[in-house]
Amino acid sequence: MTDLPASSAGSATGVSEPATRATEKPMRERLVRLADHFKREWQIYVMLAPMIIWFLLFLYKPMYGLQIAFKDYSIFRGIVESPWVGWEHFETLFNNSQFLRAVKNTVIISALSLIFGFPVPIFLALMFNEILHALYRRTCQTIVYLPHFISTVIIAGIVITAFSPSAGIVNTIIGWLGIEPVYFLTKPEWFRPIFIGSGIWQEAGFSSIIFLAAIAGVNPSLYESAVVDGASRWQMMWKITIPSIMPTIIIMLIIRIGNLMEVGFELIILLYQPATYQTADVINTFIYRQGLQSGQYDLAAAAGLFNAVVAFVLVMTANSISKRVSRTSLW
Amino acid sequence: MQNMNLYSRGDRLFVRVNMVLIGLFTLSTLYPFIYIAAVSFSSGFAARAGRVVLSPVDVTLAAYGRVLSEPQFWNSYGNTFIYTVGGTITSLIIIIPGAYALSRPQLLGRRFWNLMVAFTMWFHAGMIPFWLNIRDLGLLDSYFGIIIAFACNAFNIILLRNFFESIPSSFEEAARMDGANEFQVLWKVFVPLSKPAIATITLFCVVSRWNGFFWAMVLLTDEGKIPLQVYLRQTIATLSDDEEFSSTLIDAPYSVETVTAAIIVCSIIPVLCFYPFAQKYFNKGILLGGVKE
């Protein structure tokens, strides 16, 4: 892989030479080779440098700044000079009913999105696969992929307009049924259905791509022999397609569970209001309000650290499980 | 699948039911767009009374007139272009050589550098330390700050690195014989061969830049620098928070709803223009990145 020799191999054979010489010579040799390597290959390091500097400056430096989660942060003293307070902020958080509510809401909203949102792209992919009319299929795919490319603000704008009490289409329609208008976005019980529903509307189509790709990879001879045996399309879907894409389904499910702490908080910030905090406020929106709006940087950073650590453990667990699953079930 | 014959009546029924269900799902995806477009062309009075369902009522361009005569709209539109073009170019300038370096076998500490990039996908410091860092770097309220602070992400780098690694070394040998250096090999051999992967990450960059709002909202307080999405959010905030403001407009030919809808339409149009070109690539791109870390 590299041009550098394993330098320790040579010195091990040396018979009781003076200690200084034994280490000195390979050291110098190694340095010479290193210098040689850089002289020859400096260009790839020049290419690498901007990216590494960027990562250090914008992603790793904030990790160093995370220490304020354990400090009484003062803007005037700065991150390093502020005094340590240990676990105080975490104790405050776990005695704070708003934070506990945010943790609960994060888990509930994630779980509900998973339960209601996860199966939809699978159904869509299976159904797209059964459509034989190429133009119809392509047109429908083009349309259902589109919302993925629309910004969160526009999604929020559409939701707010559509659910508005006087002007919105939703109230117009329930008005036809003789139901009084409801101001949906101020009702805590309506927040989660609206949030999860708009998530499905935006992402289900695009997420079906990965399952369609899995279906495209199924060995066609399986279908051919099933046709010979007189299987119906319905039977082929259940007996061939679904079992064949099961590994993909399981891996995607594990990845989703690993991302449990990731709730689309940008949409929540745009849709929630104090009246719906009780069902809508998640960890990231809590951090946003406490930190960026109220200036309690240390407390909010502690909440962020808690979130990041839990997310890290979940993602790592999910990764290792999915690796094991893909090894056993694919091969 | 096209050449598969439909033998039984059951099969034909199954396929038809499928077509209908997919059609319904597609229509329900499409409907909100149609509704918003209809609202944007309706009179403010009709929109406020909830009379718009499928097509515009009392057709008027008043909302567009209001939106397009607003200097702040054009200003934020221009800013979005600056952030999208500047940000995407910056990303490519950093990511392409960086991913190439990571794919080279002779790179010392290659595992370490790769891990350093990948680790950021699993752990991040979070909103507050990131914001404090941007502030300490003096990048609040600056065009350059928005452009540089979101230039890289691990997923795009890994996607491109994997693609570079999949290119057989025989392709570069001829160039090496001619004495090409690393920059020339990257530019003349790898970049032309990696068009699908580069197109994919370009697409990801453009879309996330065009749509990005949260950090623009948090990092920019100067009204003159905000992008379209933040401007749109401000308009929507007036709609949802300020009931009195909306009712004072009862006689105007436009209402907050129609104005919001008109801004939404104006902001979607470039996405719709870009979309057909993008579509060619994203199927491929998703698969390139795939489930691979």
Q: What would your notes on this structure say?
A:
Chain A is mainly alpha-helical. In chain A, 75% of the residues lie in helices and 0% in strands. Chain A contains 16 helices and no strands. Chain B is mainly alpha-helical. In chain B, 74% of the residues lie in helices and 0% in strands. Chain B has helices at 9-40, 44-48, 62-68, 71-103, 110-122, 127-136, 143-149, 154-165, 170-177, 182-193, 195-211, 214-219, 228-241, 243-248, 256-289. Chains A and B meet through helix 2, helix 6, helix 7, helix 8 and helix 9 of A and helix 1, helix 4, helix 5, helix 6 and helix 10 of B.
Question: What's this model, at a glance?
Answer:
By secondary structure, chain A is mainly α.
List keywords for this structure.
heterodimer, A: 331 residues, mainly alpha, 16 helices, disordered N terminus, B: 293 residues, 15 helices, globular, disordered C terminus
Poorly predicted segments of chain A: 1-17
Structural class of chain A: mainly alpha
**Averaging pLDDT over every residue of chain B, what do you get?**
87
Separation, N- and C-terminal Cα atoms of chain A = 29 Å
What is the tally of helical segments of chain A? 16
Which residues of chain B sit in consecutive blocks of at least 5 with pLDDT less than 50?
A: 289-293
- Kindly provide the radius of gyration of chain A, computed on alpha-carbon positions and rounded to a whole number of angstroms: 28 Å
The major beta sheet of chain A can be summarized as: none
Average predicted confidence as pLDDT of chain A: 88
